[in-house]
Amino acid sequence: MVPSSVINHFRRLRADERGATSILMGILMIPLVGFLALGFEVSNWYMITRGMQNAADASTLAAAINNSANYDVEARAVAAQYGFINGANNVTIAVTNNAACPSGATNCYSVSISGFFPLLMSQVVGFQGNGNINGTLQKQLNAVAVAQPAQQNQPVCLLALASSGTSPALNTNGAPTGNMNGCDSMSNTAASCSGHNLGLDISFAAGTNTGCGAKQVHNDPITDPYYTRISGNIAKFPGNPCTSYPQETHQGNHYTVAASNQLTGPITLTGNSTGDAYTFWCGDIELTVDVTVTTTGGAAVLIIENGQLDLNGHAFQTANGSALTIVFTGSNTGGYTHAPTDNTNGSGGALNIAAPTTGPWAGIAVVQDPSLTTGLNVSAAGNSPTWDITGLIYMPHASITLKGAIDKSTFGNQCVVMVADNFQISGTGGIMKTDIGGCPAAGLNMPSAKIPGGAKLVL
């Protein structure tokens, strides 16, 4: 029989509630510690991921701004500054330059950073992570960033269209003193300047670039920026009034042409304020003296149909306040030459004209009709004859050999832009410096290539 004292002791124990909370807390401590541990670890994952994302953002921006063959090296170097090193501590950094852009293009840069990190206290609640490295449970974290390279237009004063496929379309040929005076150039194929950078600032090329320019930049081929405008203007020419095309003939030690096609003194061409007043000359034209051209009423367009302008050792120049566009046009048959020339086989001839600053021919000085494909090449530009021209020299299918320095016209702004199929630079060939405001003042929008100008995050 149980003593009454023992029974009474159990009765008091059953009624005693002291320590109940401790028991309850003991039971709840395991899940409480687990949730606290999980909260701490999730916060830690967030901090790591945030650091990863900052590294990915900075890396992809660096790659897009770099925009060159070593863009991936640039990206990984930046990520390392944030403490994420490719191949170390289970970190992988993937870099690409052909990621999809929001616009649908595939020229965006992407950096993806992925890493495994050991589990700490989250295992208390049974979390197993999503990786196992060397027997240690791990949590994989990721960050991705995508950036689109921003580009800016860079004006060029020498554009080789290379529609014939000529490569290199910009090439030197013994030009130790050639000087483009900080001009920028663009070749739609390769560029080659052996031993001399021609004094170019930036040399853009769609192909390889060997030694041209203080800086070489790859650029995709660019479309002729003037074709539509110039072709449209030529389509508006009035009917051709020419019935014959007198051609120069070689007599003795010189060339001569019919007296009707010889210029023997100053001339006046009818112009107007809209710049579409046309004068036709038929066949070869030869100067016998220096000729000053005065345009009345504004700018004029001189159309030389199936002929050349032979300066013959003399100057052909626009008067102060006059503006002129010379257009060589005609037929691809008949063996015609469609270009300014100097057939004296010497020096002294000079083409010195300023283009209109307004109207349909604004900024355009010398044009070969883009429909012409023969009789276009110029073998000694800037030397025989000398070219002093303000505005655009547009010869889209010509091979031009620059042998002298091309400067602005006497009465024009400092703006010289040349467009041809290809350029061969010899001797002192070059272009005198074009002022920043020279071409806008001359009415000409310069052609442009693109250079990296920063980048923006798109993801």
Summarize the SSE layout with pairings.
Elements: H1 4-15, H2 20-66, H3 71-81, E1 91-99, E2 108-118, E3 131-133, E4 136-155, E5 158-160, E6 170-172, E7 185-187, E8 191-192, E9 202-205, E10 209-210, E11 215-218, H4 227-235, E12 249-251, E13 254-256, E14 262-263, E15 267-270, E16 278-282, E17 285-287, E18 291-296, E19 300-305, E20 309-310, E21 315-318, E22 324-329, E23 340-341, E24 350-354, E25 364-368, E26 378-381, E27 386-402, E28 405-406, E29 416-425, E30 430-431, H5 438-441, E31 448-457
Parallel strand pairs: 5-7, 5-29, 6-8, 6-29, 7-9, 8-10, 9-11, 14-17, 15-18, 16-19, 17-20, 18-21, 19-22, 20-23, 21-24, 22-25, 24-27, 25-27, 26-27, 27-29, 28-30
Antiparallel strand pairs: 1-2, 2-4, 3-4, 4-31, 12-13
Helix pairs in contact: 2-3
Rounded to the nearest angstrom, the distance between the terminal CA atoms is 83 Å
Number of discrete helical segments: 5
Strand content: 35-45%
**What number of structural domains do the residues give?**
2
Structural class: alpha/beta
Low-confidence segments, given as residue ranges, are none
| Rounded average pLDDT | 88
Question: Largest sheet, if any?
Answer: 18 strands, parallel
Gyration radius from CA atoms, angstroms = 38 Å
Helix content: 10-25%
Overall body shape: rod-shaped
Number of strands: 31
